[in-house]
Amino acid sequence: MTKKGWIALVVVSVLTALIAHGFMLSEWMQGRYVVGPNDGLSQMIPFKHFLYESMRDGKFFYSERFGLGGGSFSQLGYYFSTSIVFLVTAAVTAFLEWIGLLASPDLQYWADVTVFVSIIRLSVILVITTIFFRLIGLKSWFAYIGAVIYGISILYFRHVTYWEFFADAIVFLPLLLIGAERIMRYGKPGWFIAAVALSMIDNFYFAYINFLLTFIYIVFRWFIPLAEYELKRKRQIVYFLVGGVLGAAISTPFFVPSVYGYLNNFRPPFEGEIPLFDMTENILSDGKLVVLPAFAVICLFLFPLYKKRGFRLFASMTVLLAVLHASPAVGSVFNGLSAPQFRWEHMLMLVAGGLIAVTLQNWKEIQVKHAVIAALGTIGLYVIFSELELEGKPSLYADSLVVMALITCALAILATVRQFKHWDIALWIGIVASSLITVNLFQEEKLTGNNAKVEQVEGQGIPQSFFTSDSYNGEASRELVQQLKAREEDPLARIDWMIGTRNNTPIVQDFLGTSIYSSILNQHLLHFYLDDLAIDMGRESVSRYAGFGGRANLYSVLNGAYTIRSEKGNPVPFGFEEVEQNGEFKAFENKHRLPFVRTTNKVYTEEELEDSPVLAREHAMLNGAILEEWDEQSETSPVVEDLMDKVTVKPVQAEYKNDKLVVTGKNGGIDLKVSDVRLLKEDTYVSFYLERSTADKGFHLKVNDYKTTRKRADSIYRTRVNDITIRVPSEETIRIRVPEGTYTLSDLALYAEDYSTLEEAERKNEQTSEPIVEWNGGHATVHLDNSKGDSLAVMPIPFEKGWTAKVNGEKVSVLKANYAFSGIPIEAGFNTIEMSYRPPYFGASLIVSFLVLTGLFVWMIRKKRNKPFAD
Q: What is the domain range of residue 526?
């Protein structure tokens, strides 16, 4: 294209993108945001805010604010830490802040810029996709219409609203296809190398999806060549393999840490059924993920065009991918053989765009009879889909799609009547307009509305006021957190507090917390919560952890200094006293605090404690430290008495026999009554196995005044951990209550805790001087006087590959202590411990990337000079 052509393409793309975001822009101007009320507010906006602040403070790889501490670069590689779109946005934001045009960006800033970043991203998508369609032989105007079908899709806006980083994948697919075409046509791998590198840098997960889609496209292209002369397949394969390896090598500093974060994550395997075919969505007139344009359906019935290669390519791929969209099994393949997810359908829209573009370019070959047959076939298909009863409730959105389909059929017929001038242009305009109308109606009707977590008017976005509401970042709780930070001398003291089910409240309210919600987390911490210590989080759900289940021993070991409770909160932990109040929120301080770093000579092994109850494991952590293995003599497991043989079990509004609990009342269960109240201490730990027989229902579980929830058995967010431990203040009767239904309830155990072990740990630490600790992101320094001659220092810095340590200048190993935290071998006397973190394999990855880039640069220079690579 000429320079004017490029300028015109950019201008038209920006204008089209602006119109496509019409509803979002209108809402923004009225102080409302079209962002997801769940993950959008709980993850997308907080993570962008958190990463920007971390990078601005020089914490590029690790943050003590990420839950209990974590490698944010690796664990947020699935989200934004490697996202090219986000990194560019952050760089622009930093520049505006530096020159004084922008105050320090807050959460609302990241909500504000979402729509504008989306407009720019969509404009880029339209330009790149137009280039792709031009490369395969389409004229500019038709190539642009094909790009509009691809970019102006409901899937793009669904991604932007709920999981914004998903939308980046739509940028990189056409880049990969351009690279593939340049190899197949000209044997030039440069674009493909760049596209592979950028895709793998941006997001490892969507790189996998887009690579699968590109492979499918290449296979179709091998069977349906588009150019008269194309490279032989063997040479293409060599170029694809070499180009892919080189692109991957360039991406390693970003890709390798992100993949390591994924591999170091834990997610229970999906055990539900994955049917081969399960059609639940009407992709013609009420799509929630995909809407196949009416004109694309018309094209499929234009039989004379099947003689053209380009048409056959895109028509066959459109039909195949439309069918695969109804296959959960295919969704599972694209989700790494896990639970079915539909995140690959942007390819369906791209080939539909190609189908439409090829058809319009060859429209002169279509006669009236062909258009009439195609229109009738399209209408018949719409009728069949409507009879399948796939639609949701009647809506303007669904009705409009049907009306636009009828109008498109009429325009297609009129455009074949050659006496009617310019009806073909009307058809083109109608196709573009229908896409713009569809996405704006979709934004209004499907992406907004009433939500249990947000007080919201139907058809409107989330109001600005929600950002300072009690459901998200209320003034009373926010001020109470600041009061605690002001009174606390220890900068590493943690506050147990989160609003509702928003585990990322510590990021939102800027404090060191005890909770996090992210799809990728440190597996050692997840196992610590789910298995090793069986900590109930108040809500069963994967990809998160929260609090310490009100267990005072864990607060003391892990530097939990405060907890905040509302009036409806769970019982306050033992040894916590009220120190502040603001509105309905009360703050309680831990009066049994232990030093951040503790030293010991007592070592227990995980194997020794494998069959011990969780209370015994807590005592082991207080007495000493738990390691995976120990070469020297280890300690035997602390003894805690199971009181179940001194307990009477009584069903309440239920029948209980042979581990089967049948609750007949609204809320029933069993009572556990201790025969001798003198056996009771400060707290009671009750452990049991509990699972509901009905797969399609979650339920509330209440033990005395402690409340928690359990997922339905077929939920993909279920932890599949049914061994539960609940701590409650001691009472003569322990009441376990669940809703009406049938359950398996077994392995009951009851333990009394008097906290003598915690108090003994306090006394021991009072006899030693307080260590001096600095922990700032990926750097920690500890100065401690080990006059007792202990062999190990234990600290609540989560164990993670990437940490290295020196003691008095000598390198030592970082040990996994207390299941998920760090242990450092120390010497007698004064010790200076220096710890530093870098993402796993980061140094080696940088070297590989640098060498490959240097080699390619030298090769390009030599090639340009027309000299051989080696003399």
A: 475-596
